Amino acid sequence: MTHIFHRNPAAELPVAAGGEGCYLIDTDGKRYLDASGGAAVSCLGHGHPRVVEAIKRQADTLAFAHSAFLTSEPAEQLAEYLARKAPGDLDWVYFVSGGSEAVEAALKLARQYFLEIGQPQRTRFIARRQSYHGNTLGALSIGGNVWRREPYRPLLMESHHVAPCYPYREQRADETPEAYGERLASELEDMLQDLGPETVIAFVAETVVGATAGALAPVPGYFKRVREVCDRYGVLLILDEVMCGMGRTGTLFACEQDGVAPDLLATAKGLGGGYVPIGAMFASDRIYQTIRAGSGAFQHGHTYMGHALACAASLAVQQTIEDDDLLSAVHARGEELQAALTERFGTHPNIGDIRGRGLFRGLELVADRDSKRPFEADTKLHARIKSEAMERGLICYPGHGTIDGQQGHHVLLAPPFILESSQVGELVDKLSGAVEAALAAVR
Ligand code: PLP
């Protein structure tokens, strides 16, 4: 008997009772290897003593002081820490409680920036198909995930979408990765021309696409070209690193590997590592100074922004990543994971692509490897893999609609940064068992 309005009221869920490192444990004592950190959240695994201690210490001191009246030491320290590490001049950190809130804040600040500099005609956003930016109405409006948008379409604000950077399916055989990236940047420029570039606020993209398409990393040069196009027309670049940021791909900010800095950046998930709900929007110095010298305030806000307890926990998460050199671990374990996945699935008839960066990896399932034909949507392959994996004591993050919002299936992996080499084998073995069992049911 439950009174929780669960995501899926019909599903019978195990009850989580504890967590130890990379494992979650249910009330029956069953252990699950958390190979997706939930949804790329639990970067330090579960029950990390340093984070638990920081939370206890902060709870004893101060849990919450409303940000309209007071600031707090943990919030100041975390902002200073993050601003020091952030690329470009993303020197200003606006704390929120999650990813959708971080994206909403970025969209609204971008609009307000143009009002302040006397360009009120800029009202439009361009984003990409096959991206997810959150479930609140603004974030959903710019999102490119067809099935998530569909029921709410009449309520969504105007947005425009260009192609994702999806080399497995969309890079031509006669095209280098660089030429493919150029072609995509040209598509963005063409859309700007069609819309009238002076009407566009920003281009929004996940640096590495997560939930909708399964760890799609950009080709070399893509974001540099995109940045140039945005700059040519005075359009802002907003990067959504809610899932791929905070070390997940091997650098604290995923865009470091692409040699670009956006004007606004959204992050969450790994920022608090699941210990607390926290997200952040980073703003460039130019945008911050414009607001400060102009109207003087960003016309936005939430009750829990800059929550002291959340900031203290997040600071402990981030300092642990630094002190324990976990970005190197992400890189090393990520390479081991890619190698192990390639050894197991590299010639598998139903795995078309194995991709990603760091500890952010995706496998795309296909009915036919040569033609890349997907399985029919009604096979619900993703749901089958998820439940077969749970059965075997593995949590992974399968998705559907990989190709166009309806067709295609993938599995996303995002294990904790503390994953040990010996656990890579356990992960791949359990995943392989789950994939084979799910495939046997649909063949
Ligand atoms: N942006 C991206 C890239 C995400 O992956 C997500 C969540 O999965 C969000 C935004 C929304 O974050 P939240 O669920 O914390 O609101």
What's this model, at a glance?
The chain is of the alpha/beta class. The protein has helices spanning 37-40, 49-61, 73-85, 99-116, 137-142, 146-149, 167-170, 177-195, 222-232, 285-293, 308-323, 326-345, 381-391, 421-442, and strands at 16-20, 23-26, 31-34, 92-96, 124-128, 160-162, 200-206, 236-240, 264-267, 279-283, 351-357, 360-365, 394-395, 397-400, 409-413. Pyridoxal-5'-phosphate binds next to helix 4.
Note down, in words, how this protein is organized.
- By secondary structure, the protein is an alpha/beta fold.
- The chain folds into two domains: 16-47 and 325-442, Alpha-Beta Complex (Aspartate Aminotransferase, domain 1), CATH 3.90.1150; 53-323, Aspartate Aminotransferase, domain 2, CATH 3.40.640.10.
- Helix content is 38%, strand content 16%.
- The chain is built from 14 helices and 15 strands.
- It has helices at residues 37-40, 49-61, 73-85, 99-116, 137-142, 146-149, 167-170, 177-195, 222-232, 285-293, 308-323, 326-345, 381-391, 421-442, and strands spanning 16-20, 23-26, 31-34, 92-96, 124-128, 160-162, 200-206, 236-240, 264-267, 279-283, 351-357, 360-365, 394-395, 397-400, 409-413.
- The protein has a seven-stranded mixed beta sheet with strand order 4-10-9-8-7-5-6, with helices on both faces. A four-stranded mixed beta sheet has the order 1-2-3-13. A four-stranded antiparallel beta sheet has the order 11-12-15-14.
- A hairpin with a 4-residue loop joins strand 2 and strand 3 (31-34).
- The relative contact order is 0.16.
- The model has no long low-confidence stretch (mean pLDDT 97).
- The structure holds pyridoxal-5'-phosphate.
- Pyridoxal-5'-phosphate binds at residues 39, 98-100, 103, 132-134, 206, 210-211, 240, 242-243, 268.
